[in-house]
Amino acid sequence: MDDIKHILLDKNFELPEEIDLLKSHIQSNFKIDSEIIYSNNSIIIKIPSAAVASILRTRLDKIKKEIKTTKKIRIIIV
After folding, report:
1. Are 76 and 44 in contact (CB under 8 A)?
2. Can you tell me whether residue 49 is helix, strand or coil?
3. Residue 50 and residue 20: Cα distance in Å, rounded?
4. Domain 16-77 = CATH 3.30.70
5. 65 exposed, middle or buried (CB, 10 Å; 0-12, 13-18, 19+)?
6. Is 63 exposed, middle or buried (0-12, 13-18, 19+ CB in 10 A)?
7. Which residues have C-beta within 8 Å of that of residue 11, sequence separation ≥ 6?
8. Under a CB-based contact definition with an 8 Å cutoff, are residues 45 and 76 in contact?
């Protein structure tokens, strides 16, 4: 049985490139902070502005192509 040290050493803790691309896209275009939750089949973007969320929703297809993902992107207003 592996001990926890060996399990954690084999684990990759780097963030996927999609998260960095999404955060930089949102920051550069809207100058607003966002929280990104990444899972196996979706990406959830938490945005504090309803106006920005609305604009992002209209651009989802373009954003998916830019970050090269096939995951479902969801936007939540917090």
Report:
1. yes
2. coil
3. 22
4. yes
5. exposed
6. buried
7. none
8. yes
Q: Which residue has the tokens 């920051």?
A: 27
- Look at residues 74, 75, 67, 72 and name the one whose alpha carbon lies nearest to residue 16: 67
Torsion of CA 18, 30, 63, 56, to 10 degrees: 120
Query: What is the full per-residue pLDDT of the chain (78 aa) written as tens digits?
Result: 567 887 778 777 788 888 999 999 999 999 999 999 998 899 999 999 999 999 999 999 999 999 899 999 999 999
Q: Work out whether the CA dihedral 55, 61, 66, 72 comes out positive or negative.
A: positive
Token pair in block for residue 24:
């930089």
